[in-house]
Amino acid sequence: MDVLGLVDIPTWLLCLLFLAGLVVAYVMYMSWNHDTFRKMGIDGPKPHPIFGNMKMFIDDGIVKTELNMYRKYGKVFGMYETYIPALYIADPKLLKDILVKDFKHFVNRRDTFKTSADPITSSMLTQIRDDHWRFVRSTVSPTFSGKKLRQMTPLINDAADKLMQHIDTKIKDDEDIDIKKFIGGYTMDVIASTAFGLDVDSQNNPDDPFTKHARMFTDSSSVAVFIVIVFFMPFCSWILHLCNFLGISLTKIKPALTFFGRVTDKALKERRESPGKYNDFLGILAHHDRGDDTKTAEEEQESGDAVSTWTRKTLTQDEITGQATLFFVAGYDTTSNTISFVMYHLAIYPEVCEKLLQEIDDKIGGATPNYENVTSLSYLEMCINETMRLFPAAPRIDRQATDDVTVGNIKIPKGMIINIPVGAIHMDPEYWPEPEKFDPERFTAEAKANRDPFVFMPFGAGPRNCVGMRLALLELHISIVRILQKYRPVKSPKTKVPVQVSKLGNNPLELYLKFEKRT
Predict the structure, then answer these.
(1) Domain annotation covers residue 54
(2) What average pLDDT does this structure show over 157-179?
(3) Which end of the chain, N or C, is less surrounded by CB atoms within 10 Å?
């Protein structure tokens, strides 16, 4: 007994009490905001004290969970991403306010990489905020003008030449084709050439350093570390800053960023030394980086509403590297997935395939597809749109309120995350009768004119939509035409119907097809 008359407490008991205190503090921290939507009068599923509603996403995946919640709670509901309240809004009238009319209150997306000290990720167009975003967006947008896309078209067709050779080989060997992996090599080649001016030929050389480092961005262990820190241990973000300072990498993303930084530095140096020689993404950005911001009338128009008050005319090295890296991250999987799903539907619905083949034969024949002639293929556009309705590349988009604002009758507090469940909206029978059915006729000119535009948003909407949308669509059109000019996709014994997709999004897990040579 000590001088205060108290019994000495064993060390093990002190440790146990300390740990118990930490657990209680952690639970309180994670559940502190779990009454947010009750106070707002917003319905939604009951949250777990630690997981919030994340367990639903873990069990059923993002697309299925959001579709289930949409059907149960309607067009406005609230969910908790562990400790983060996320307000879901799917009403097209409210979405028009958020994405266009009241855009000044919802300029920013959520700060996904707020725990990262890496200058490249924090400089990406998807992460930068407010006027910084307006400045970079207005500089990058002309990169995807009609003039620039025409210059990139030969690069897309060069990659398609190799794709045709690979399909020929598969037909001769009578092989089932893992279509996602097969098309992935093609889209990798397209991005390497249109963004970095590199001829990596990942279709023949999957071990190319560019290809190897590019795939690190989708490494499952890196995604797991990111999810744990962002959603379950946000108070430990200092660890990432310390590791970044010490040059220690907790995930494979850091070595990939370092590699792309070196590639970008070298490519920019070459383009500054030989201005006008390169028609790729970096070549165009290097032009802006020299301080020459002269734009054509077309480029001024296509800069959209992203008008910035910044007077700086040049992008920094990190900003250029960030956009080039984002170009790959955002464009590789999404484009290869969409081409794969188009081929899948054409194999499953041969009558649709025949109609599309006839249109290509009639309007293009054996000519090389380009920026001009693919615009005449209205039925192909309908097939692509219907594919993106069923399997949008971004099944959810988000915005963050920059201040307190009222939308409709909903009072949204500053900082609130707004999730827009695009995949669920695309499956609403109110807008899409028999939504599970693949039907390109939904996208005739007459049908589109009679439908609210905010119920179909595969590339987002408003000033902060996908900046590379036009390049993605051009790549989709050219690649599909090139394939169908010579081949017809058909089911193989390994084709699974319906197709299986990843829980993290619309990424085909296993999709096998075959191709037949057209006579």
Answers:
(1) no
(2) 91
(3) C
Listed in sequence order, the residues at least 6 apart from 493 whose beta carbon sits closer than 8 Å to its beta carbon are 176
Burial of residue 73 (number of CB atoms within 10 Å: 0-12, 13-18, 19+): middle
Contacts for 39 with CB less than 8 Å, ≥ 6 apart:
none
Q: For 454-502, how does the pLDDT look when each residue is reduced to its tens digit (9 = 90+)?
A: 999 999 999 999 999 999 999 999 999 999 999 999 999 999 999 999 8
Indicate whether 12 belongs to any domain: no
Q: How much is the pTM?
A: 0.90
What total of structural domains would you count in the chain?
A: 1
Instruction: Give the domain extent around 167.
Output: 120-394+458-517
pLDDT digits (tens, 9 = 90+) for 382-405: 999 999 999 999 999 999 999 999
- Cα distance between the two ends of the chain: 98
**C-beta separation of 457 from 311 below 8 A:** no
Domain for residue 280, yes or no?
yes
Lowest mean pLDDT across 46-50, 310-314, 445-449: 310-314
In this structure, what token pair is assigned to residue 209?
Answer: 């350093």
Q: What is the DSSP string of 413-448?
A: PTT-EEEE-HHHHTT-TTTSSSTTS--GGGGSHHHH
CATH number for position 369: 1.10.630.10
